[in-house]
Amino acid sequence: MKILFTVFCLLSLNASANELFAKADIAAGKALHEKNCISCHASSFGGDGSGIYTREYAKVKTSKGLIAQVRACNTNIGLKWFEDEEISVAAYLNQTYYKFEQ
Predict the structure, then answer these.
(1) What number of other Cβ atoms are within 10 A of residue 87's Cβ?
(2) Number of compact structural domains in the chain
């Protein structure tokens, strides 16, 4: 069911990820990430949790995949972020770790 939801969300994006990243609030994304993501990622990967983004066998391979992963985490842990918040977190992660096309 979670996989179907993620696929649906990917297909439902009206704009490309790069267009969405251009409208993102990176500072807000960073704040949301620090408040809601670091503790879980640190408990799973140690340190500051950034190992989840830099691991050799990363699940996320594209900017759209990054948005889908943030959306899946939002849904799975019940954060109730709005789409603009998901995009802002994804844009922050892209700028900081992934460096997908802009």
Answers:
(1) 27
(2) 1
